[in-house]
Design a protein that fits this description.
- The structure is a single chain.
- The chain is of the alpha/beta class and 674 residues long.
- It has a domain of 130 residues: 2-Layer Sandwich (GMP Synthetase, Chain A, domain 3).
- It is 31% helix and 21% strand.
- The protein is built from 19 helices and 29 strands.
- The strands form 8 sheets. Strands 12-11-8-6-7-14-15-22 form an 8-stranded mixed sheet, with helices on both faces.
- Strand 6, helix 5 and strand 7 form a beta-alpha-beta unit.
- The chain is globular.
- The chain binds 5'-O-[(S)-butoxy(hydroxy)phosphoryl]adenosine.
């Protein structure tokens, strides 16, 4: 199990065509020709897709490259995302079609769900208009302001988001697993005036008191004027700060049932949302996404990657707090007028077959999940899957981290009955949309266990060596995107310099007008041109598919009074892909103890959230460093995976070698003892 260990073990030469897809299969060379054709003129190519959407005003220019790398798509164009997701669908005859099937977590004694709600396009439109009215008329929400959401997956959240963007405001959704501290940091950066939350949420049968976390966060956030609270679990002892906090139901109580709010005419390059993600510094990055490019990119990938048809039922297991939730669990499904499922709770509650029962109950045809989830279900065993009829499935894709061939084979056999299109879709918070994947909606090239396949049409990707040359097949290098694409980030909120530096500096040659987007991923291409992403090339971990910067963890740790220095690296984990492991130097007066280890783990939970908790904490007397004081994570990582010390003679100062060797030995002894 675990993630991809070596390139030579990858099944480059396995070609699988599921029987039911035979008439949609296309040879690799045919697909390559489609891509080449699309790249001859990407503006023309993407304009053809954009023409399929409804614009209030057509664009003047498809791609504005006048100020690279600040590319802008469909400039001069005007549109509205809420309009496209709701009004436009109703205009196309989907008024009474079910848009959202919602299933709450709680179950009865037989294990059946107690709460199921089905909302049609008309239901969503009605509610969205009422909320839009309340936000604008009662709370004075202005175009361009950013509302922060810290919520469970409940239908009210969907309509609140659609209402927000209807009136031209933007959202910043913070995953409900983040701590008060992490939430506060994000609210402050976005300067939100309004925060939306719920009284609590269900998780594995327990109630998590969300509003209390918001109260703690908001204490540090002077910009916050209003907190909207959705009653989800019915807590009776929720503290409501007079003048600041308002129940969602009270906000809407006096809004007429049939109110209509005209969707704001937004410019294509206006902001739809900000989503925070981790980078290589302690400060999370607010990734800013546009409206026009994003809408076009989503529309295309829903059709190509998910091959969406009108009678599909989509189940995406991603939480709305991540980009996968934004793109393919809200806007994507709505913009193509499909039916999709939101499940509120834990995948293994009340038993490890909750997801399989959902697929069976609603006849899910398209399932989107993560490799970590697949590996977790592998552990539970196939009997849980076998109990259910999953024969409606025709597409099952994964996302978030590399999928090891063994996990791919397991789900291809047990979920797909070897008869679904099954792709590992590569993309990032920054890319907004899937960029590398099989595209069954265009034609299915052969599947290979664990590959990401090729870029979608209209997108050019490559694997480069350190000098920027294309790597030959089988040679590991850096994954880059060589063309701007619709859906790409606009910038990093309040930090355009960091945007340029992080993504456009490593390989671009501005003097030659060459702009290359650096993904921070390692990848390898095979002789067919299939791309296999291997993992991050920077100091960012993927823990159960969630992105966590080691610098964020380190900065949290050193804020604890006992900690003088800290270094965090990822350790391979059979289920989660990798988990954080911390090496800590204590301050004078503190000594190592199991209690302190526990305390530091809890500290990280408190500072960032449960998802960031180190699996292990090692107390050391010194950390291996270069003479210039940089912590040698490569070396710590070598210790963790049991690799030899390797070449440390490249250190700029030889006198550090002995020191480093000593530190290495100390670490090794510690790690071996555990
Ligand atoms: C990083 C981006 C975009 C959805 C969720 C993750 C890794 C993502 C794959 C895949 C191998 C993948 C990369 C990337 N990643 N999908 N199919 N195969 N790696 O978004 O949190 O912004 O993380 O996830 O390392 O850089 P994110």
């Amino acid at each position: 199990m675990g993630s991809i260990s070596s390139i030579s073990s990858l099944p480059f030469d396995e070609y699988i065509i599921p029987p039911s897809w035979r008439d949609r299969a296309i040879p690799i060379d045919d697909y390559k020709r489609i891509c080449e054709e699309s790249l001859r003129n990407i503006e023309e190519f993407w304009a053809k897709v954009a023409e399929q959407l409804k614009w209030f005003k057509k664009w003047d220019r498809v791609l504005d490259s006048s100020n690279p790398p600040f590319f802008k798509w469909f400039v001069g164009g005007e549109l509205n995302m809420s309009y496209l997701c709701l009004d436009w669908q109703i205009e196309q005859g989907r008024k009474n079609k079910v848009a959202l099937i919602w299933e709450g977590e709680p179950v009865d004694e037989r294990g059946e769900p107690i709460e199921v709600r089905k909302l049609t396009y008309y239901d969503l439109w009605r509610e969205t208009n009422r909320i839009a009215y309340a936000l604008r008329e009662k709370l004075g929400v202005k175009k361009g302001e950013i509302i922060t959401f810290y919520c469970p997956m409940i239908p009210e959240l969907a309509t609140l988001l659609l209402a927000t963007v209807r009136i031209g405001a933007a959202h910043s959704i913070v995953f409900s697993g983040f701590s008060a501290q992490a939430l506060a940091e994000r609210i402050k950066d976005a300067e939100s005036r309004i925060v939306v939350t719920a009284d609590g949420m269900y998780r594995r049968g327990r109630i998590l008191r969300l509003k209390e976390i918001v109260d703690e966060a908001v204490k540090q956030c002077p910009t916050v004027e209003k907190v909207i609270v959705i009653r989800r679990v019915g807590l009776t002892d929720v503290h409501m700060e007079p003048g600041r906090d308002i129940w969602y139901s009270d906000l809407l109580s006096d809004v007429p049932r049939n109110v209509y709010v005209e969707p704001e005419r937004m410019r294509s390059e206006d902001t739809l949302f900000v989503l925070y993600t981790s980078g290589t510094t302690g400060k999370p990055k607010g990734i800013v996404h546009d409206i026009g490019g994003y809408a076009v990119g989503l529309y295309a990938t829903m059709k190509w990657v998910f091959d969406v048809r009108d009678d599909d039922i989509i189940f995406n297991s991603a939480d709305i707090g991540w980009i996968t939730g934004h793109s393919y669990n809200l806007y994507g499904p709505l913009i193509v007028g499909s039916t999709f499922i939101w499940y509120e709770g834990a995948p293994d509650y009340p038993a490890p077959d909750r997801w399989w029962s959902i697929i069976e109950r609603y006849g899910v045809t398209i399932f989107y999940t993560s490799p970590t989830a697949v590996r977790m279900f592998m552990r539970y065993g196939e009997d849980w899957v076998r109990k259910h009829d999953l024969s409606t499935l025709r597409i099952v894709h994964t996302v978030g981290e590399p999928i090891n061939p063994e996990a791919w084979r397991w789900y291809f056999r047990n979920l797909c009955r070897e008869n679904c299109a099954a792709s590992s879709t590569w993309w990032m918070t920054e890319t907004g949309i899937i960029l590398i994947s099989h595209v069954p909606g265009i034609g299915l090239t052969p599947l290979k266990p664990g590959t990401n396949a090729m870029p979608i049409p209209g997108v050019e990707a490559d694997v480069l060596d350190e000098d920027g040359n294309s790597c030959p097949p089988g040679v590991k290098g850096y994954l880059v995107i060589k063309t701007p694409w619709p859906g790409m980030l606009l910038t990093i909120l309040k930090d355009p310099e960091r945007y340029v530096k992080t993504y456009w500096s490593k390989f671009s040659k501005p003097d030659q007008g060459l702009w290359i987007f650096y993904t921070s991923d390692y990848a390898v291409k095979d002789k067919d041109g299939y791309i296999w992403v291997l993992g991050r090339a920077d100091e960012v971990l993927k823990v159960a598919g969630h992105r966590i910067g080691t610098a964020e963890l380190e900065s949290a740790l050193i804020q604890h009074p006992a900690v003088a220095e800290a270094a965090v690296v990822g350790k391979p984990d059979p289920v989660k892909g990798e988990v954080p492991v911390a090496f800590v130097v204590l301050r004078e007066g503190y000594s190592p103890s199991p209690e302190l280890e526990k305390e530091l783990k809890e500290w990280v939970r408190k500072m960032i959230g449960p998802l960031a908790e180190p699996a292990e904490v090692y107390f050391v007397t010194k950390l291996p460093k270069t003479r210039s004081g940089k912590i040698m994570r490569r070396l710590i990582k070598a210790v963790i995976v049991g690799a030899p010390l390797g070449d440390i003679t490249t250190l700029e100062d030889a006198s550090a070698v002995e020191e480093v060797k000593k530190a290495y030995e100390e670490l090794r002894r510690l790690v071996e003892r555990k």
